[in-house]
UniProtKB/TrEMBL annotation:
Pfam families: Methyltransf_23 (PF13489)
UniProt-listed InterPro entries: SAM-dependent_MTases_sf
Molecular function GO labels: methyltransferase activity
Matching CDD domains: AdoMet_MTases (cd02440)
Acidic residues: compositionally biased ranges: 20-30
SUPFAM superfamilies (alphabetical): S-adenosyl-L-methionine-dependent methyltransferases
Region span, Disordered: 1-30
Full protein name: S-adenosyl-L-methionine-dependent methyltransferase
Length: 332
C-alpha cells in the first residue's frame, strides 16, 4: 500500500483482521538443511519444564513460561479451540486465510497454533505446501500418523527471540488477544521472517460487546464479564482489545499493502440469516464452554476473587447470555 492509498482508505476502529504484505529486501535466507538440523517436530523427549502442567481449581494450565498465558490447555479447552476453528472458517466463507498467497512449496508459520488444527487443515487442504510450522507454549498438538508429513510443531514462546530460519511465504496468527504483551515486537519479528512479497495475516478480536438495536443494556452480566476480563488482562499487560491497533502495528513494522476486514459475530441463534445463525450457535457454545477457562485464573489470581465468587458470577453471565431478546455481537 502506497502513502496515497492509505490516505484514501477508511479505517474502521474496531478492525480485528489484517492482512499485510512484506516488501523487506534485506533478509538473507538461511539454508533449509542447516535450519532443519536445528529444529525438529518434537525431536527427542521434551524437558519436564515443558511437559509438566499446573492445576488451578480443577483446570490444567501449561508450565512452560508460566504466567505468559493465563488460560487452560486441558481437553475441555482443546475441544473449545477446535470449535472456534470451525466458527472462524464459517465467518471466512470456508477459507483458512484471505491473503493472496499462491504457488507450491510454500513455507507457512502458524503463531500460537494451539491444538494444531489450523496447521493440519492447511497441510491437508494444500498438500503441495512445503512445510507448515506451528508453535505454541503448550505441547498439546497431536503426535500421531494423522499429522501430515509437512507439518511440524514446536514448543516455543513467540514473544522470545525467534530462531534464525528460512523466511515464510505466509505467517498466520489467530486468537492471540490476551496472550501477547508486546504486539509491536511480534509484528517486527514477523516482518523479519516473511519473504519478499510474502504475507502475514492476523485474525483477532476487539472484545467489546454491542448490539445494533439497543437491546444490550449496560447492566447485562455478559458486558460485566468482558469488562472484568479486560481489567484482569490489562493488569497483566495482555490486552483483549487489540483489534483497533493491528493496522498501526503492521505499518510501523514495515509491511505495505495492509488490508483489513471486520466480521460481526453474533452471540446466539437470534439472527434471521442462516449463516449468521450458525455462526452465532458456535459462538454461544464456545462462549459458554469458555467462561470458566477465561476466568478461573484471571479472576482468582489477578482480581483476587474466590473460586466460589467466580462460580456464582458465571451463573449470572450464562443466564444473560441465553436471553434471546438481547442481540449481542462482537467483531472478528
Amino acid at each position: 500500500m502506497t502513502n496515497s492509498e492509505r490516505e484514501d482508505q477508511t479505517v474502521q476502529s474496531d478492525i480485528s483482521q489484517i492482512i499485510a504484505e512484506d516488501e523487506n529486501e534485506d533478509y538473507e535466507a538461511e539454508d533449509d538443511e542447516a535450519y532443519g538440523a536445528e529444529l525438529h517436530s518434537y525431536t527427542t523427549s521434551l524437558a519436564s519444564s515443558v511437559t509438566d502442567h499446573k492445576w488451578v481449581h480443577g483446570r490444567r494450565f501449561h508450565s512452560y513460561r508460566e504466567g505468559n498465558y493465563m488460560f487452560p490447555n486441558d481437553e475441555k479447552e482443546q475441544d473449545r479451540l477446535d470449535m472456534f476453528h470451525h466458527m472462524f472458517k464459517l465467518a471466512l466463507g470456508g477459507k483458512l486465510f484471505l491473503a493472496p498467497v499462491h504457488g507450491e512449496s510454500l513455507r507457512v508459520l502458524d503463531i500460537g497454533t494451539g491444538t494444531g488444527i489450523w496447521a493440519i487443515d492447511m497441510a491437508d487442504t494444500f498438500p503441495s505446501v512445503e512445510m507448515v510450522i506451528g508453535n505454541d507454549l503448550s505441547p498439546i498438538q497431536p503426535r500421531c500418523k494423522r499429522v501430515p508429513p509437512n507439518v511440524q510443531f514446536e514448543v516455543d514462546d513467540v514473544e522470545a527471540e525467534w530462531p534464525e530460519r528460512p523466511p515464510f511465504d505466509l505467517i498466520h496468527s489467530r486468537y492471540m488477544c490476551g496472550s501477547i504483551s508486546d504486539w509491536p515486537r511480534l509484528f517486527e519479528q514477523a516482518y523479519n521472517q516473511t519473504k519478499i512479497g510474502g504475507w502475514v495475516e492476523f485474525q483477532d478480536f476487539h472484545l467489546v460487546n454491542y448490539s445494533q438495536d439497543g437491546s444490550l443494556k449496560e447492566e447485562n452480566n455478559v458486558n460485566r464479564f468482558y469488562e472484568l476480563l479486560r481489567e484482569a488482562c490489562e493488569k497483566m499487560n495482555r490486552s483483549i482489545t487489540v483489534g483497533v491497533d493491528l493496522v498501526k502495528w503492521a505499518e510501523e513494522a514495515g509491511f505495505s499493502n495492509v488490508k483489513h476486514k471486520v466480521f460481526p459475530l453474533p452471540l446466539g441463534t437470534w439472527p434471521r440469516d442462516q449463516k449468521m445463525k450458525e455462526i452465532g450457535a458456535f459462538n454461544m457454545l464456545q462462549f459458554l464452554e469458555g467462561l470458566e477457562a477465561f476466568s478461573i485464573a484471571t479472576f482468582t489470581q489477578v482480581l483476587g476473587w474466590s473460586h466460589e465468587e467466580v462460580q456464582v458470577f458465571l451463573a449470572l453471565v450464562r443466564k444473560d447470555a441465553r436471553d434471546r431478546t438481547v442481540h449481542m455481537m462482537h467483531d472478528l
